[in-house]
Every structure is written in structure tokens, then in C-alpha cells.
Design a protein that fits this description.
The chain crosses the membrane at residues 30-53, 59-77, 150-168, 201-220, 241-265. The chain is mainly α. The protein is 76% helix and 3% strand. The chain has helices at 3-8, 25-55, 62-91, 98-131, 136-139, 142-168, 185-189, 197-230, 235-265, 273-297, 300-317, and strands at 13-16, 95-97, 177-178. Helix 2 runs antiparallel to helix 3, helix 4 packs parallel to helix 8 and helix 8 packs antiparallel against helix 9 (235-265).
Length: 321
Amino acid sequence: MSSWNQSNFRVPEFILVGFPGFQDKESKNILLSIFLMIYLLILLGNVLIIVILSLDEGLYIPMYLLILNLAVLDIAISTTTIPKLISALLFNDNIISFAGCFIQMGCWLGILTATSFLLALMAYDRYLAICSPLHYPTIMSNSLAMKQSLFCWLAGLVVGGFLVILALRLPFCGPNKIIHCYCDHSSVLRLACADTVINNYLGLAIALCILILPLLYIFFSYFKIVMAVIKITTSEGRLKAFSTCGTHLLIISVFFLLTIFIALSYRIPGISADSRIMVSLLQSVIPPLANPFIYCFKSKEIRGSLEKTVKRIHKVTQCPK
């Protein structure tokens, strides 16, 4: 094939190799069991949160509206990657169309961006509630929280769409084997039949901006929160506040640190493909799995609403005597 024809030929589909070092049937069955169980737990926990927050009007406050958005994003980011992995492990369905691959890439990048900004927004909400409790009702409202959440979604749409459009400008004439479980941006760019330096550096710069800037703001907000908590007179109140802040910061740090590692992993020598892929998958499942427990089920209001919902369902389904 001539160089002109090669550069103008576009592969119709990609092959997702998955874990290069775990291609035997036993390893695939173990991975299938683990990720299927995790995905079902993610769906159960986050759908339950969405149902509770949607049905209980008493929870229509900015904090829980932001958590509602987070639950939707958690379902979305895990659904973007895990079902295709399960299908590949269960049915050896490791082929994805060209369009499907770029749609998956754009969705993953967009959801990641929206989640990053939403976590910063949630930190801002907690900062106002704890450090400026008297002014909080006048600063934060339900409509403002929804507008800010919409901005996070739009930012994700813009970033994901921009990076996908840049990638689509490249020729993909073969090979078509992606060394990953889903269409990761860097993994796909490595298959382009052209120089990808601009795409790589621009993608890295955008990734670091949407990760490091929100992370710095989150740490700044929680530093202010800690300073305010120290002034609490009762040791019980301080312990409760530190416990809550600590768990929030832990899961936020896991999300951001894993994502930063993914962005830099191709530029760090000595990291195996299996390690890089596993970290990518953990980034898609650990925060969505933990967030319902960290942000919701530890809340007295959420637990109370859940109990009321269960009792209401029990009354409806109870057979008349």
C-alpha cells in the first residue's frame, strides 16, 4: 500500500487487548468475578442514593444536590469502562468500532473532567457551610448549586469533545490493537500513523490543569475547614469533624492521585502495561464504590430518609389481612 493510501485509510475497528499478562482463562475468570461484583455494588449504592435524594424533598439542599450529581457521574464513569471489560472477559468480545472507541474515549475524558470540577465545588460548599455558616444560606442556593453542577458537566463536554476532535484529525491506518481494556486517550494515540507530539503534550497540559488546579483548591478549602474545626470547643465535635474531613480527603486523594498517575504513566519508564491498565480501572471503580458510603450512608439525614423509604415500601407491599 502506498504511503498516500496508507495515510488516508482508516481502520474500521479496534481490538482491545486487555491485560497482556493475564490472557489465560483462569485469570480472566478471576478478573470477571471481581469487576462484575464491584460494578453491581457501584450500581446498587449510587442508584440507591439517587432514589433517596430524588424522593425526599427534605433533602433538597445544595449539599445533597451536588452529591446527587456525583452519584450520576460515578455510575457514568464506571459504565463507560466496566461493561465492555466484562463483555470481553465473558464472551471474548474485545472488538470495538472506530466510532464507538472515540465515543468511549470522549465520555471517559468528559466524565473525568466533570467529576474533578464537581469535587472542587463540593469542597467549596463544605468550606462555606463550616467557615461561614451565617452567610451560607444567602450565598448557596439550590438554583446556584444546579447551575454550578451544569457548569461542571459543560466543562466535561468541552474538554472531552476537544481532545476527541484533535485525535480524529490523525490518520489511523493500522495497527489497530489497543493495549488496554478501553479506549484510553494515550493508548489510542499510540496507534496513529502520524506525529502525535502536539496531541500528547496538549492532552497532558489539559489533564494536569483539570486535575491539579481543583486538587489545590480542595486542599486549600479543607485547610481552612481544619482551622475552623480546631476552634470547636468540644473534643467530640472536633473528632467528628476531623473524621468526616479525613474520609473525604482520603477518597478525593485516591481519585486525583490515580488519575494523575494515569496521565503520566506513559512517560514514566519501567511501568508495565498490566500495572497501568489496573490503575486505570481502579480509578474508575474505587471512588464510585466508596463515595456512597463516604458522603451519604454516614449521614444521619440519609440514613433516616432510607429508613422512612423502606417503611413506606413495606406498607405498600404488605398484604391486606
